[in-house]
Amino acid sequence: MKAISVEPKKQGTARLIDIPEPGVNEGSVLVQAIAVGVCGTDVEIVGGKYGWAPPGQQRLILGHESLGRVIDPGPSSGLKKGDLVVGIVRRPDPVPCPNCAVGEWDMCRNGLYTERGIKEIHGFMSEYWRIEPEYAVKVDPSLGILGVLLEPSSVVAKALEQVDLIGRRSFWEPKTVLITGAGPVGLLAALFAKLYGLEVHVLDRMEGGPKADLVRDLGATYHSGSVMNLDFEPDAIIECTGVGQVIAECIQKIGANGIVCLAGIGHGGATISSNIADVAASAVLRNNVIVGSVNANKRHWYRASQNLARADRAWLAKLITRIEKPENFMNALKRRPDDVKVVIQFSEI
Ligand code: BGC
Known about the structure:
349 residues, alpha/beta, seven-stranded mixed β-sheet, six-stranded parallel β-sheet, 19 strands
């Protein structure tokens, strides 16, 4: 079968290769890949900056945003042939740490967790993949190819849950949420925040265009330019850009008792001139919490699948802006200005 793999930490090694079909040791459920979403993490891995091959192997099969069709449900999964499924990304560490022991692998303490398509386990960019039944999430069949949005949705469901849990340390009745960055994670965060009844604002550097239209179609408000120019102080901010300047501005702009949830993964960039002690003083004097949020556990995958099932299909469909064939995977990894989610399609839905 065909698979897209890479030698992690070596730029220029990504290829479409031929490999044997996965063995039953990789999971009792056999799945035919339909589509795999591409995200910044894949771009980083292909760029040689991130990623780990399985122990004793040189190459890693890419892909962590999956969608497939069950070909063989195996003996005990409760799934049926033809069901649409998505694979959970992270696996608990083998020790396990207390969080992994209770199913909170997203909060792993010792860093020994593994992740499909990212860290030491093969991903989903192959014509067929296998999965353990407990890590297969059934997708509402009416979502069709939109089920490929479930992985980024799980990350969003966790981030919003974190904000809610932290908020409840005091009287918490949030009204406004700001989302910085109108990429897939930002737009899904806007969708979910709307479903949760919040007044939603999305800020992106683009002045207009399809992303701004998507925000307005949700009934949310679109802003471009600097966070500092906003004329309100949000109760919560979901920061999805990973850009230092934007992060610093979010920390200054958040309202009293407000929470800044960092969900974007950035690197380097210009040095920020704000003095750390001044930023910290503002957080202290206003009871702010700045929290990082990564990955998702089963509870978040469940919540995400519920939210996606409630969402307007026509709106969701506009998030998938480009579909590429596996042989053109390098095109999928090159970002174009109006791209939201680019997907590699392996088989017809
Ligand atoms: C994935 C997460 C993963 C993180 C770090 C993100 O792109 O969505 O599931 O935990 O990368 O590897």
